Amino acid sequence: MPINESLIGEFQQELTSTRKMLERVPCDKADWKPHEKSMTLGHLASHVAENPFLIIATLSADELDFAKTPYVPFEAKNNDELLKKLDETSAQAIELLKKASDEDLMSNWTMRQGEKIYMTMPKIASIRMLGLNHWYHHRGQLGVYLRLQNVPLPSIYGPTADEAM
User: Fold this and answer.
1) Is the pLDDT of residue 165 over 80?
2) What is the pLDDT of residue 164?
3) DSSP 8-state class, residue 39
4) Which of 78, 94, 161 is nearest to 131 (CA)?
5) Is domain 3-148 in CATH 3.50.50.60, yes or no?
6) Mean pLDDT for the chain?
7) For residue 81, what are the contacts with CB-CB under 8 A and spacing of at least 6?
8) Distance CA 69, CA 25 (A)
9) Of 50, 134, 53, nearest to 92 (Cα)?
């Protein structure tokens, strides 16, 4: 099996779970945060929705240079905007994954800020670390935020206290 097929399968499975979480975000509480050092609920949910852009960035070029392309965080105003961003970034990521050969995925990718290099690694490692693991990490945080707002949590990998499979 080509590597890209495995990544696409995992991505699509996790996309379903991520969508369930974002559908439940109480956007009227977007400014809430659990701690002064934490990001707001709105910023976290927006970041989860836009995170597939890291797969896009990895597969679109051999580097991402924030000095040339400054990062401007997406900020959704409502659930429709969250889901639209998730759908857009996910569709682009899947299309690029479909076109990625094993050779493409083994080529190096660099994240930098001008001369400062944050990381250089094979594209497959960037996709796993930034595009997937990073996504799951923030989705987990979002689950805690939702729990603290008394929002029923959807099943992700199994039943929750709020929802059976």
Assistant:
1) no
2) 83
3) P
4) 94
5) no
6) 96
7) none
8) 29
9) 53
Cβ neighbours of residue 117 closer than 8 Å, sequence gap 6 or more: 110, 111
Residue whose tokens read 């400014």:
31
How many Å apart are CA 156 and CA 85, to the nearest integer?
20
Say whether 160 sits in a helix, a strand or coil. coil
Give the pTM. 0.94
Report the run of H or E that residue 96 belongs to, with start and end: helix 79-99
CA-CA-CA-CA dihedral for 117, 119, 120, 126, to nearest 10: -140
CB 123 within 8 A of CB 59: yes
Number of C-beta neighbours around residue 116 at 10 A? 10
The token pair that represents 70 in the structure block: 């400054």
Q: Give the 3-state secondary structure of residue 66.
A: coil
> CA 55, CA 148: separation in Å to the nearest integer?
30
**Percentage of residues in the chain having pLDDT higher than 70:** 100
pLDDT in tens, 120-135: 999 999 999 999 999 9
What is the average pLDDT across 91-99? Answer: 98
Inter-residue contact 142 to 45 (CB < 8 Å): yes
pLDDT on residue 139 = 97
Sequence spans of domains, the chain: 3-148
